[in-house]
Amino acid sequence: MGELIINTSAQGLIGVGGFKTAHTGWLTLMAPLKAGPGSVARDKIVSKRPYHKVFATPTATTGPYKIACYSLVDELSKLFREANVLYWAKSLLKLTYDFIDRCIASSSEPPPFLIPRVRFVEAGLALAYHQGGSKPGSKNGSTCAVFLLEEFIDSDGEEFVKFIYNMDANPLVDYDDYGYDLAVFFAFTQHVQYVKTGKLAFISDYQGV
Length: 209
Known about the structure:
Helices cover 25% and strands 27% of the residues. It has helices spanning 72-106, 180-196; strands at residues 2-6, 13-16, 20-29, 43-55, 65-69, 123-129, 143-151, 161-162, 207-208. Strands 1, 2, 3, 4, 5, 6 and 7 form a seven-stranded antiparallel beta sheet that branches. A two-stranded antiparallel ribbon has the order 8-9.
């Protein structure tokens, strides 16, 4: 249990992606976690919700549109799947580093280069419940909204980079650009994950700072 404040105004909008909106927010948990979002009082976080586009006419697929929320049932399903994907992606990344560490331990010499140590943002689902005095007809204690919360990335002025697109295994970063070494490393992790999972899965759409 805790308090979640989300700035839903235009000033609080961080961005609109292909499937989700992102707003700034602040999270305070009654029993703070040891690490990650909610580990400090009034922790700044990013709140995300899925959306769908509503065009001017029912048959239109292009042109001006409005952003509309899904029903609570559909929203919960989509965000639960999103959180589950992040959970498994973190496991795949750990599998990759376990493989790297075993190879280094069994080698007579250390690698002649630095190995990047990266991680995913900490995240979780937050469910809001109806309280006394909520909208007429709402059942007290029933779920009224759901959000995907992610830790706020403080880039310290560093450029946010998309290293590998989710539809192409080739690095998006050019050889002479910042982040190329990381992009090549991420391509390597995809090879490890693809082989180690018996060609079943690998992480795509690497982006961050």
